[in-house]
Amino acid sequence: MSQIQTGLLILLLTFLGVVGYNVYLHETTPEEIAYTEFLSCIEEGEIKAIHLKGGQVTGENIKKQAFSSYVPDIPTIMPLLEEKKVLITAEKDSENISGFLKAMLPVLLILGGYLIFSRSQQGGKPGFGKSKGSSFHPKKRTNLSFEDVAGISEARIELTEIVDSLTYPEKFSRLGGYIPKGVLLQGPPGTGKTLLAKAIAGEASVPFYSIGGSDFVEMFVGVGASRVRELFTEAKKNSPCIIFIDEIDAIGGKRSGGNASGSNDEREQTLNALLVEMDGFDSNETVIIIAATNRPDMLDPALLRPGRFDRQVTISLPDVKGRRKILEVHAKKIALAPGINFSEIARSIPGFSGAEIANLVNEAALMAARHNKTCVDFADFEEAKDKISLGLERKNVVINEKDRRVTAYHEAGHAITAKLLPDTDPVTKISIIPRGRALGLTQQVPLDDKYTYSREYLVNRIKTLMGGRIAEEIVFGHQTTGAGNDIVTATEIATRLVCEFGMSAAIGPIAYSHEQEGFLGNTTATKAYSEKTAELIDQEIKDLIETCYRETTELLTKNNQFLHELAEALLVNETVDGEEMDIVHHCYLKQKEIEHNLLKKRKRNND
Ligand code: ADP
Ligand code: ZN
């Protein structure tokens, strides 16, 4: 069916709907009689019961004829009704609304018909959405500051620069540098991305325009794009300013060819408009676009190109220190009992986001109010926490204690292996705060940019990767899937070491092509080596990995105590930085030294 035919059909249906509706109205509305007639009927005793609804009165006379009428002033007829012993039922007056709705219904139907019609049309009228942008209002200078956002020290440094470029744009342009245009805040929901964007606007005291990605898409074809243009025009007039786009993945998701749904088309138009606007700034216009997403992997790469959202700041779930600070920020708003231990509360809520912590404080205040207390005390927090956690556990947000322990030992295993082996990159951070699909992380940052790698470096990298799984095995005696990715990476390094870098003794310095793709074996790959060599390669890789595995197990078993101590530090603090790890290491060495001396002394005494 062509679009015109569809449209005509919809209009016809709409018309029939209106007609049908009026017929219905006519049949069910009883005969309207004049007020004076109504009064005389009452006086004659012809009406025994009425129903009142506002001024509208309906009922039946003794001849069972339905009537309706309008009473201008009900109280004045009450004495008469009572005198004649008329049974009165009444209900609240919703007449105004329903009357309005009744009057509006045909209009709504036509409008609905039109909307469906215009939706079905590709590239509909962009002018339709010009209903003066209801979704974005400049939040006339938010007065939030970085002080309102707690536990984001890492992100804060990067974002201070954005504030500077808004406050002193001349400073940046004079030096010829380019002012950052797009900042992508990525992180789980409720970690304060919106709050942070507002705080940036507040710190720089510039207007803040905000719009949600889904606002663009819910509308009709072409409207999203025109909204984007409208928003940017408005923002440019008020430069310097900030545009905040929440859930940018709603419009900026990867473009998938071949999907013929209408909303996808709309999304693409909107995304294109956004890209065009971002590319088309004058040098004197300082508009910074901050976008938020919790699915950075879903974004169209076009958005991440230089000059667009080329700054990416990751906001992760807060660690125990961060949670304490967020608790403190929000607790300022409530009446607090003296001496509440926020560290203890923070420790007891692993995995909570900023929003969940704000909610916790609010719930605690509600608990206190429920118990008629004058201030919020520790018990209220405990009770609120239980209430929230029970709800959250269902959603599987709170990591259970068992998983936390396993993760702590796993990460400690990586970190200790790296620490104790020579020629490895220094460990800068270990964490058991889940992010994305990973339950924890061990971060190593090379001291300088590496261009060549020694064999020892590569071997120790493999060992470090295995350290996670091995620590789990030593402590818990079983394996988990948590190490899956480590094993993949380790195998890859071992393979390259043997085939590409020519670092295995049995194979020698010969580079063999090795097809990585296809887990199921690459049948089409041209083999640059014989079956025999292939076997040899496989054997070499296997040997290398097994040696690494055995030696790392020995290393970690020997330093078992260090493993326990670091894991314990992780369980308490959730993140441990390089310096803190050094302290744990130092304590461990000291302890070993003392034990050693003690042993020596006993031995001497025995001799
Ligand atoms: P997102 O945009 O990342 O989903 P929001 O900025 O909307 O998160 O956070 C929701 C609320 O949670 C905020 O208004 C604030 O009350 C609280 N919140 C989240 N993170 C923090 C934080 N780091 N410090 C203080 N409050 C926070
Ligand atoms: Zn790991």
Q: Can you describe this structure?
A:
- The protein folds into 4 domains: 3-99, Signal recognition particle alu RNA binding heterodimer, srp9/1 (2-Layer Sandwich), CATH 3.30.720.210; 146-314, P-loop containing nucleotide triphosphate hydrolases (Rossmann fold); 320-390, Helicase, Ruva Protein, domain 3, CATH 1.10.8.60; 402-547, Methane Monooxygenase Hydroxylase, Chain G, domain 1 (Up-down Bundle), CATH 1.20.58.
- Helices cover 54% and strands 11% of the residues.
- It has helices at residues 3-28, 35-43, 74-83, 95-119, 153-167, 169-174, 193-204, 213-217, 223-237, 249-252, 262-279, 320-331, 342-347, 354-370, 378-395, 401-420, 455-476, 484-499, 531-558, 560-573, 578-606, and strands spanning 31-32, 47-53, 56-61, 66-70, 87-91, 182-186, 208-212, 241-246, 287-293, 311-314, 427-431, 441-444, 575-577.
- The strands form 3 sheets. It has a 5-stranded mixed β-sheet, covered by helices on one side. Strands 7-8-9-6-10 form a 5-stranded parallel β-sheet, with helices on both faces.
- Strand 3 (56-61) and strand 4 form a beta hairpin.
- Residues 149-152, 189-195, 292, 326, 329, 354-355, 358 line the site of adenosine-5'-diphosphate.
